[in-house]
């Protein structure tokens, strides 16, 4: 599992924790991927870490709580996706022809991983990529395929993509292909390894699916992913409770006349006051939402406080930040950790 990225698009949340460890539907994001891997029969996982590496060991230890053996490798300077995979090679346990599943650490996917491995084996492929269709392919690795699903090109983040079929960030590699990635220098599988394999006429297969899929790399996607798991749109064995409109973790409290809906998760010890509405949001541990506040499609960081009557839509509030009573924050606003917006909306003299 590739978990070494800095998660810059999710700042300020990723200033204190790496993206794969952000609380998602009640558990660290990666727990959902680890649980699905375990359910597909995987027993040994190597986490390819770099940014905030020590936090992964603290979160998952040897993996026994999840029924897995987890090993860790560390890149003092990030080696890219291919370099990260190569760096893990020494810990892989299979032989040269055995399949190795590689996952980006920010993907929620409902596809049948075992079926992807079967397709890989059936074709004796060098690599088999999971493919999904999206509306905005230019943001991803675009993957045209030819007869019988054979991949004909790999185009990473290019304008005017020829197809809307994209790389979904889950690969099956033949072990020997990993050993051939150059060691000790940055390598991108998307820009270097995959194009070179296709150029050399190696068998690179696509496993297409139309099941649930989401890259949670932006705040909007992160909130949607958490809500989708709580609502049961993606079934996760790691979800700590029943699916429904809301997931309340230990000692979270909601005033009788408040409404918490849309797959919202309320973290440990968080509080929602009288008449407040919290919809489709992720509220981290110990955060407090005041009376009459309205919070939609937003992330409220650990220990943050939202004042009475404040209105938040599509925003990210950093850990321990304070949004004073009556403030309104809209689409895309981000409040950095510890910042205090004390009074009602700031006005400029030109508004008068
Ligand atoms: N170990 C390690 N080292 N991991 C890394 C490094 C690194 O240097 N750089 C990135 N990663 C990890 C990230 O932590 C993340 O889990 C994964 O690799 C992918 O990085 P992103 O930064 O999320 O890439 P992306 O979303 O822009 O694009 C990738 O995913 C798309 C699907 O969501 C590409 O693989 C695209 O081709 C693909 O379509
Ligand atoms: Mg990503």
| Alpha carbon gyration radius | 22 Å
| Low-pLDDT segments | none
Question: What name does CATH use for the topology of the largest domain?
Answer: Spore Coat Polysaccharide Biosynthesis Protein SpsA, Chain A
Euclidean distance between termini CA atoms? 54 Å
Summed up, the domain count is: 2
Based on the coordinates given, report the CATH architecture of the largest domain.
Answer: Alpha-Beta Complex
| Fraction of helical residues | 10-25%
Strand order within the widest beta sheet: 13-16-19-22-25-28
- According to DSSP, the number of beta strands is 29
CATH homologous superfamily classification of the largest domain: Spore Coat Polysaccharide Biosynthesis Protein SpsA, Chain A
CATH class of the largest domain: Alpha Beta
Binned strand content: 25-35%
Overall structural class, as computed from helix and strand content, comes to alpha/beta
Shape: elongated
Q: What are the distinct ligands in this entry?
A: guanosine-5'-diphosphate-alpha-D-mannose, magnesium ion
User: Main β-sheet: number of strands, strand sense, barrel status?
Assistant: 6 strands, parallel
Count the helices. How many? 8
Rounded mean pLDDT is 95
